[in-house]
């Protein structure tokens, strides 16, 4: 569970990041889960977008993806959301206490 200070720090890191994935009308598929898992392993923090044609809202997609990946939701604004998962092998993001 992230504290508000840690969440604010992660939001500041995520602000300049590009959106690396999209969730379309098919919703969250195995390929979306796998690509998000690979990106989280490499970067620890990722930004995704839910397209207007999707049947899910960004908040719903964020919740489902976080449950599938064991990640933490950081931010959800409009159609974009940010998730974080600490790397077990070599963490690159040092969270404030």
Q: What can you see in these coordinates?
A:
With 97 residues, the protein is α+β, with helices and mostly antiparallel strands. The protein has helices at 4-14, 30-43, 58-69, and strands spanning 21-23, 45-50, 72-77, 80-84. Strands 1-2-4-3 form a four-stranded mixed beta sheet, sandwiched between helices. It is globular. The chain starts with a helix and ends in a 13-residue tail after the last strand. It has a single domain, classed as YhbY-like (Translation Initiation Factor IF3), CATH 3.30.110.
List strands and helices in order, with pairings.
Elements: H1 4-14, E1 21-23, H2 30-43, E2 45-50, H3 58-69, E3 72-77, E4 80-84
Parallel strand pairs: 1-2
Antiparallel strand pairs: 2-4, 3-4
Properties at a glance:
four-stranded mixed β-sheet; Translation Initiation Factor IF3; 97 residues; globular; alpha+beta
CATH architecture designation = 2-Layer Sandwich
Cross-sheet strand order for the largest sheet: 1-2-4-3
Number of helices: 3
The outline comes out as globular
Element order: H for helix, E for strand: HEHEHEE
Total strands: the figure is: 4
Low-confidence stretches: none
CATH topology: Translation Initiation Factor IF3
Write a brief structural summary:
The protein has helices spanning 4-14, 30-43, 58-69; strands spanning 21-23, 45-50, 72-77, 80-84. The protein is of the alpha+beta class and 97 residues long.
């Amino acid at each position: 569970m992230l504290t508000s200070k840690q969440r604010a720090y992660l939001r500041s890191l995520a602000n300049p990041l590009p959106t690396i994935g999209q969730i379309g009308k098919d919703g969250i598929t195995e390929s979306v889960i796998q690509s998000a898992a690979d990106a989280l392993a490499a970067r620890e923090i990722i930004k995704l977008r839910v397209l207007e044609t999707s049947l899910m809202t960004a908040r719903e997609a964020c919740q489902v993806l976080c449950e599938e990946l064991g990640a933490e939701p950081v931010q959800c604004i409009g159609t974009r959301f940010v998730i974080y998962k600490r790397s077990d092998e070599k963490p690159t993001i040092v969270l404030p206490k």
